[in-house]
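Quick one, probably user error.
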């Protein structure tokens, strides 16, 4: 089975995915927690007036957040359809003035941008997971376009956290495909298209693997976090607390703290890492 990165396939899938990319942050309580945790790190490292490159900007969930922080944004994606939705959602939020440009661009080729062009680079979601065994090449590009001392905010799909969050689905796949295929996924982190809800190969990272990749590049780790922790598997309680704004805000603060604990980093559906370019 072909497990190589196919840019045209990923672009076509996301063109067809449409506004599901916008809506996915609200499906389950832990999706809403994940959005809050990602946003927490944006607010910690993006300053008013920063020039920000957003790689894999999608339909604009985080583009809107960056604009609200006062960033000047170059929003990129490999999907024309997602960039069209990005335009719509940012305009609806009244924040289009913060967009410097929207451009089709692949994380593996950011050559249109000179070295040291951006104060901050944001690559949340799937881009580093979609390029499969070329994540080192992608990291080279993300860091190349970042100013020395600038920050790169990275999100990757988590192997162990995804198994925890979607264990029912894994059990069904074991019944359909057999235990050996599931074991191979856990051994390698490579999710074949027939096991991926997106219909394309995806690499799932452990924190140890991602840190090993980052250690090979000219950057220093500043922060690391799971995308969610306590909320996974606790939908009923979370839904009750969401009806009480004060309790929900308190719980989100608990999640921010829990997700950053060393023992929790692998436990969310995504791993967030913030690095500073040397």
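Nope, works fine. Designed sequence:
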């Amino acid at each position: 089975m072909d497990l190589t990165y196919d840019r045209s396939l990923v672009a076509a899938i996301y063109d067809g995915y449409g506004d599901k990319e916008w809506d996915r942050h609200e499906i389950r309580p832990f999706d809403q927690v994940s959005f809050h945790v990602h946003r927490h790190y944006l607010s910690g490292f993006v300053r008013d007036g920063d020039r920000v490159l957003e790689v894999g900007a999608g339909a604009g969930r985080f583009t809107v957040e960056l604009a609200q922080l006062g960033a000047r944004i170059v929003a990129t994606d490999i999907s024309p359809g997602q960039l069209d939705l990005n335009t719509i959602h940012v305009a609806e939020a009244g924040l289009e003035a913060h967009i410097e440009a929207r451009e089709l661009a692949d994380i593996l080729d950011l050559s249109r941008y000179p070295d040291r062009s951006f104060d901050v680079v944001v690559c949340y979601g799937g881009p580093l997971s979609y390029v499969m065994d070329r994540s080192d090449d992608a990291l080279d590009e993300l860091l190349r376009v970042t100013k020395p001392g600038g920050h790169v905010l990275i999100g990757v799909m988590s192997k162990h956290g995804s198994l925890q969050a979607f264990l029912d689905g894994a059990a069904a796949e074991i019944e359909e495909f057999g235990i050996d295929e599931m074991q191979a996924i856990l051994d390698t982190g490579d999710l074949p298209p027939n096991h991926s809800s997106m219909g394309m190969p995806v690499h799932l990272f452990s924190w140890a693997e991602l840190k090993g990749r980052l250690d090979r590049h000219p950057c220093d780790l500043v922060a690391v976090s799971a995308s969610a922790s306590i909320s996974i598997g606790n939908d009923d309680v979370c839904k009750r607390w969401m009806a009480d704004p004060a309790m929900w805000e308190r719980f989100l603060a608990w999640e921010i703290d829990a997700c950053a604990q060393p023992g929790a980093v692998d436990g969310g559906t995504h791993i967030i890492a913030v690095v500073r370019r040397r």
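Residues 29-45 form the longest helix (17 residues).
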